[in-house]
Design a protein that fits this description.
alpha+beta, Aminopeptidase, Alpha-Beta Plaits, 2 domains, 4-stranded mixed beta sheet, 15 helices, 17 strands, globular
């Protein structure tokens, strides 16, 4: 029988290998190369008795599904869902090699250490040791490591749910992220559980103009100048705040004093409050959780230095609150564009409304029981993630899907949020130990 320290060491080594595999997903079909990590994980789980299958809808874009069959067909099933791809990193920006997986002062550095190779690793380690210890769940326990989460899951969870629903369907699913401890007003830990996510509406705005000689710019119809005005209008647009159930229960659960909680629960005051908050990470989270947001991210235009541009493409990342559909997003864009609407074509490249799962469920109760083993006196609080996870696809199959893990206090809330797709991403070994032990305890509690 292994100890928790031995399992943490094993998870550390596995995480280092996953980081070094550099499964970098830049959004193109030929990127990712997740087969490297799917095969590594498959080899790691060999000999456990688990049933395993891999799926590769496009060369190199491989996902692994491993299952411990349940003993009771009527018992609920649980899936631990991780992804193996990571976003690109610029090595010159980092203190250490983003693909080196170095262990320095108790922390593993590298792209994906937080998003989400840490959880993908500890899910695998827990699954392996549960199997080796002879654990036989009442309902199926499934571990899935998918490709392509960082680019709309075309070759990952979305493809699996559409093409192999019976193989991946589960009553309950846990994926990223959650579980980073926050102190409540009473000094006791609050652990966020991701219960939903905003909608993804990515679009390309094509701004048109009239070409001409750049040596005579006076009163020209320059598409680039108009695109700059579109960017300015997007940046200055201020939609009204909307408070949804997960946000209200999150703030109420933290037990903040009235001077903090009241403005965060008042749609007429929250904007000014976010502008004044000294904690930038909290301000950004509070704003994004209560507003449909727009961020211009990519601009392409012009053909030659001496030609007035007649066409510019602007990519905009729109994240919509629960209840918003494409029509409402389009109406917001029309409002932003105003008198420029006739010069702008809108092409939606992704249209995925917000999704959420019920908060009061048997899995929620099990997570609360297990969390208190590791953080005595803690309370789990619901949270709406402002990013996107593969839970939006498992929910289409009827699964109650949460995001969770368990992290130590070594990395604070501000740091934790900044490392997602940021620089100097890293995770401490103690967080790996906590997550691994939590997964094992949860399996025994919920499926034992």
């Amino acid at each position: 029988m292994t100890t928790d320290i031995q399992r943490a060491d094993e998870a550390t080594d596995l995480l280092q290998h996953l980081i070094r595999n550099a499964c970098v997903n830049d959004g193109t079909p030929a990127s990712g190369h997740e087969a490297r990590s799917a095969e590594l994980l498959q080899g790691y789980l060999e000999g456990t008795g688990a049933l395993m299958e891999t799926y590769e809808p496009s060369p190199g874009r491989k996902s692994l599904v491993a299952r411990l069959p349940g003993t009771d067909p009527t018992a609920p099933s649980l899936t631990l869902l991780g992804h193996t791809d990571v976003v690109p990193a610029t090595p010159s920006d980092w203190t250490h090699d983003p693909y080196g997986g170095e262990l320095i002062d108790g922390e593993i550095w590298g792209r994906g250490a937080i998003d989400m190779l840490n959880l993908t690793t500890t899910m695998a380690t827990a699954f392996r040791h549960l199997a080796l210890d002879g654990f036989r769940p009442r309902g199926d326990l499934t571990y899935i490591a998918v490709a392509d989460e960082e680019a709309l899951s075309t070759f990952g969870a979305r493809w699996l749910c559409a093409n192999h629903a019976d193989e991946v369907r589960s009553d309950y699913v846990i994926t990223e992220s959650g579980g980073f401890p926050m102190n409540g007003a009473d000094g006791l830990p609050r652990l966020p559980v991701i219960v939903g996510e905003k909608g993804v509406f990515w679009c390309v705005l094509t701004v048109t103009g009239t070409p001409g000689h750049a040596s005579q710019p006076l009163r020209t119809d320059n598409a680039l100048v108009k695109a700059a005005e579109v960017v300015r209008r997007i940046d200055e647009y201020r939609p009204r705040a909307e408070l949804h159930e997960a946000w209200v229960r999150f703030i109420e659960g933290l037990g903040f004093p009235p001077e903090l909680s009241e403005p965060l629960l008042d749609p007429d005051r929250i904007d000014d409050f976010c502008d004044e908050l000294p904690l930038l990470g909290l301000a950004r989270q509070a704003h994004a959780c209560t507003h449909t947001t727009m961020a211009p991210t990519i601009l392409h235009g012009g053909t030659k230095v001496n030609v007035i541009p007649d066409r510019v493409e602007l990519t905009v990342d729109i994240r919509a609150l629960p209840g918003w559909d494409t029509g409402e997003v389009r109406a917001m864009l029309d409002d932003v564009l105003g008198d420029l609407s006739d010069s702008v074509e809108i092409d939606f490249r992704a249209e995925e409304p917000a999704s959420s799962s019920p908060i009061d469920t048997p899995l929620w109760d099990a997570l609360q029981r297990v969390s208190r083993v590791f953080y005595p006196g803690s309370t789990n609080v619901p949270f709406l993630t402002v990013g996107a996870t593969d839970a939006r696809y498992t929910r289409t199959l009827g699964a109650t899907s949460y995001g969770f893990g368990l992290h130590s206090t070594a990395i604070g809330f501000e740091q934790y949020g900044a490392m997602f797709h940021g620089i100097d991403e890293r995770v401490d070994v103690e967080s790996l130990r906590l997550s691994n032990e939590m997964w094992m305890a949860l399996a025994h509690d919920f499926l034992g």
